Amino acid sequence: MQRHILRPAVGQKGVAGVKDGHGAPPIDPGIMCIHNSGTTEGEQAPMPLTIDRPTILENARLALPDGVRSGALAVQDGHIAAIGTPPAGDWTRIDLQGRLITPALIDCHTHIIHGGHRAQEFAMRLEGASYAEIARAGGGIVSTVSATRGASVDDLVAQALPRLDALIAEGVTTVEVKSGYGLDMETEIRMLRAARRLETLRPVRIRTSFLGAHAVPAEYSGRADDYLHEICLPALRAAHAEGLVDAVDGFCEGIAFDPAQIARVFDAARALELPVKLHAEQLTHTGGTALAASYGALSADHVEYATDADAQALSAAGTVAVLLPGAFYTLRERQAPPVAAFRAHGVAMALATDCNPGSSPMTSVLLAMNMGCTLFGLTPDEALAGVTRNAARALGLSDCGTLAPGLRADLAIWDVESPAELAYRIGFNPLYARVFGGAATQG
Ligand SMILES: [Zn+2]
């Protein structure tokens, strides 16, 4: 498809493509202008696209759950009012010239709030340093914990914003953010406050997960149960009392917590009526997936070592399998998640960046889609479902993730012909515009 750049006609103040002659909709200064797919040399930048009144996006291609259909999508009061045939009446009309509309993307598993980075450790590893040598040099999760403990809310927010902006620039409107690099009462809560702050600074929706059971801090080495009793569970209750927790997460692995310890965390979550999710079966099989399913978890994440029986359990519980190819790639893992078993048992699969400073310093959902296809064998349609409707499900959200009347108008508009192009390209961002709850931005 040829790339179209919308420009206002000479002497006309309206936004290009707007046909109703109401004049230029005001550009809300509170709405950040975001990335667009660029202009060729000498071309004028596209005009901002603003949706602040009942609007029909017409001449579009709509990525619906059962395939792509040409038609229109109407937006009113921040929601999708209709799809398919445009309704009659006095609507602002924007001609999308055949562009593809998908649900806005959702990154349902991130650790974007954290202090510092681990580039030095990355370099050491490539120069042949062992894990133990890196740990002795202060590397590993310990370095992130100490950098995070030393950061204020303002610091954490300032460091996270460029990562969040990179996601937003790819049409992401909802981001899950975990705690888990504080591992003490104050810092776990500070991380969640920083996460909540993000949605006051950007047009984005944040869902928080309390991940106190991420690792055992050095001061509790060999005393994981004491850490849970003295720090993790009190921090969970305090964070919940402050309204900072949307879900409770844990890391079930030989190097972290065993299923019995995770069960204590889940029992505490249940007592607070909070949903749970779990990092499970990433490096070994420990039984975390079955445990998560037995608690009706929203999601079991990583799941490389999940078995056929685990897939059955996820299916029966309606728990989403969140696949995280960025960590698989960075750690050069060999065991891919059992996608065929997930398909056979009808397990919903999501994809996410797992953005974190150690095993997945990745801020591209589009790249996660590509990796999900190339490394795990997902189809492009599965990849798109994985970052839209199944990602919404992994966060317990039923008001977004699909193009359907009544849902939030969280949309991504792309300069591509088919959804497959989103997963196919590597390191290319064809976003044309992003619509967040009815408010559109286009760079
Ligand atoms: Zn993670």
Automatic annotation (TrEMBL):
GO terms for molecular function: imidazolonepropionase activity; iron ion binding; zinc ion binding. Its main location: cytoplasm. Its cofactor is Zn(2+); Fe(3+). Keywords: Cytoplasm, Histidine metabolism, Hydrolase, Iron, Metal-binding, Zinc. Its EC number is 3.5.2.7. Pathway: Amino-acid degradation; L-histidine degradation into L-glutamate; N-formimidoyl-L-glutamate from L-histidine: step 3/3. It catalyses: 4-imidazolone-5-propanoate + H2O = N-formimidoyl-L-glutamate. Residues 101-418 form the Amidohydrolase-related domain. It is found in: Cytoplasm. Pfam families: Amidohydro_1. 4-imidazolone-5-propanoate binds at residues 118, 181, 214, 282, 359. GO terms for cellular component: cytoplasm. Binds 1 zinc or iron ion per subunit. Signal peptide: none annotated. N-formimidoyl-L-glutamate binds at residues 181, 356, 358. Zn(2+) binds at residues 109, 111, 279, 354. GO terms for biological process: L-histidine catabolic process to glutamate and formamide; L-histidine catabolic process to glutamate and formate. Catalyzes the hydrolytic cleavage of the carbon-nitrogen bond in imidazolone-5-propanoate to yield N-formimidoyl-L-glutamate. It is the third step in the universal histidine degradation pathway. Belongs to the metallo-dependent hydrolases superfamily. HutI family. PANTHER family: IMIDAZOLONEPROPIONASE, IMIDAZOLONEPROPIONASE-RELATED. This is Imidazolonepropionase. It comes from Rhabdonatronobacter sediminivivens. The gene is hutI.
